[in-house]
Amino acid sequence: MSLKGRTAVVTGAGSGLGRACAVQLARDGAAVAVWDLNAEGAGETVRTIEAEGGRAVAYVGDAADRAAIEQTLARIRADLGPVLVLVNNAGITGFKPFLEITPEELERIYRINLMGPFFLTQAVIPDMLAAGWGRIVNISSSSAQTGAVGMAHYSSSKGGIIALTKTLAQEFAARGITVNNIPPGFIDTPMTRASPIDVDEIAAISPMKRAGQPEDIAAACSFLASEAAGYITGQTFGVNGGRVIY
Ligand code: NAP
Description:
Shape: globular
Distance between the termini: 27 Å
Number of helices: 9
CATH superfamily: NAD(P)-binding Rossmann-like Domain
CATH class: Alpha Beta
Strand order of the largest sheet: 3-2-1-4-5-6
Helix content: 40-55%
Strand content: 5-15%
Bound molecules: NADP nicotinamide-adenine-dinucleotide phosphate
Radius of gyration: 17 Å
Number of strands: 6
Number of domains: 1
């Protein structure tokens, strides 16, 4: 699955799923822009990639800050070239009964989980159009497929990501750009460990009797970003150990 000569941007690549996706895309040959709020985490991802002989640069900042997106992208293009693979992974979660969610909490989650990917994709697609080739992988959530009690703000933001994926897939299908989403289901990451979810308990009752690992998502991301996945677009590519089956 060679991405040699191509540049990938992975947001939220300083931790969890984003880090695993960045490392795998670098193994596939891409030069990777590791974009994260967390400088330490982003640096660790870059060091991991470099130790394996890959190419990566850290960009520290808010991937959902519309005013800063173009500036960061200009630096990425200057350092690594036009962006042909985009993984919209950065996200935050939230747990609160529906009636207690404040407008501020809703706006924060929609800004980071939905509007950020919307604006970043708008900014990156011209590179893909110029090349006549592009791969966009959006990280959604199984909570958007099933609903999730106490997560109305989060699950609805991720439902928006699935709808955005389907729409962009159709708008750009004839121009060499594929757009797919991966809804993870309970992957063992710092986000999950910091949440009220008991990962080990859920693993015990899941079909495969184990929690997902970031590498499980990275494998799917790598495939969707590859040449081999060129006829796949608009899809919701579940990676959840059989917990959610449609
Ligand atoms: P994680 O371990 O918390 O990693 C997310 C990374 O993204 C963190 O380094 C975080 O930085 C960074 N980040 C957050 N907001 C950002 C922003 N606006 N700009 C740049 N970086 C930002 O989470 P994860 O479990 O890997 O989750 C990754 C994605 O998968 C999220 O979109 C999440 O909703 C989705 N997901 C995860 C699961 C799961 O089971 N883990 C399930 C469904 C969906 P800070 O730590 O500094 O905030």
